[in-house]
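help with this record:
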Amino acid sequence: MGSTPAARTKFSLKNEESEKIRTDSAQNLAAFEEKTVRFPKVIRHRKAVATIYGRSKNYPYYRLAYYAAGKRHVRHFSAFGEAKPEAERIVRELADGSQAAALTAAQSRDALAALERLQAHYQATGRRVSLLASVSAYCEADAKLNGQTLLPAVQGYLQSVASVKRMDIAEAVDEFLQTQTPRTKVADGHRAQLSKKQIYVLGIRLGRFAATFPNTAVSDLNNEHLDAFMGALDKVKSKSDKRAVVTSAKTRNHYRAAVGQFFRWCVRKDYLPMTHRLLEADSMRPEHANTAEIHFYTPRELTALLVNADEALRPLLAIGGLAGLRTAEMLRLDWQDVWRVPGHIEVTAGKSKTRQRRLVEICPALQAWLESYRVRERGKFWLGEERTFLEHYRDLCEMANIPRKENGLRHAFCTYHFALHANENLTAAQAGNSPAMIHAHYKGMATKAEAEKWFNVLPPESARNVIPLADTRNQAQ
């Protein structure tokens, strides 16, 4: 039979009265126990201990004290009936090895919320991170941001770095050199942006850089890598005798320039971020190279070289020594460049090292050496390669018993021209160099009397009016 509404009402009221009786009974028991207990009251569970201190006239609260995580904790209760069950719960947790008792209520809520957030992160990404690891990572990042918030820093990082592609250094170097190769090719009558020699030397330097860090991505490079590479350049082994050879500051600067050029290309290819700052490493700062000793020919040596040279080599040596053109500039010359502007050699922008046009004065001595070549109105000065020219030049020095001096003709021109005119601006304009370079390298190297002898090296009297036959050896090249 179902119960009537009246019966249900009576049952509900009966339950409420029963609950009230139990509550009142517990309160009465706590109040009774409170009156009979002796304070401080020690609560134990195995080795865990908590102590309850009674109220006093000056402090009307019960204090619960215990040690957790190596620290003393004190909590306050208005009734002994609240303090005792909490103390019993705490000692049981401490006896079981739990350190949760070290947390306040607010800290417990934060810890639970943080764990729920990490669980949601795991479900979304599949990456599980502990609460300690996440807090440690945040604190480390916050310390480095110097007061900036983490989210804007991450957004800025993603804008500049997220698109970076991983590429092995050796593979990137090969790709870089391949992109530079087309710059060595040009239509007839024009000058290429880069010479094959430049690409060859660049390949040697970057090849050594890549070999230093095998199986390493460009984006993984840091300042320590660059310090190690530049430190290894202090000494290199010669391929011929395997002995260690100390590299010069100038050579190390060339390596720095090659690596810097490679890094700028890597940024354009997204192999490095724009904010990589690798070139700010201490080891990448250019060194002040000591001024190398300048070796140059004397007037007597120039005379011997010109007299013993064949008809193909003689005008090049005369222009190198008496007009100061660089070897590469001379080999690009056409006879029209000599006769186009009266009294001057025109070094066009396409033939100049600096890619800037300049006019070099033809002094009377050079005019005398070139006079017999008037019949050559057009055509290149040298039909062969630079390597062939250097081989013939070396053979000439051996035949004339004159030591071959690196860039000795150009060094001699700059030295004697500055000694003769005492004007670095004038010498720099003729040589296609900077006044500072002239002043730093060629000042005080010769006297004015020696300079006058140099610029008065004339052809022998018997050879002045001789028109040479076509140089068959040059034509064969």
Remarks:
- The beta strands are 41-45, 48-53, 62-68, 71-77, 235-237, 244-246, 344-347, 358-361.
- The CA atoms of residues 177 and 203 lie 7 Å apart.
- The first strand starts at residue 41 and ends at 45.
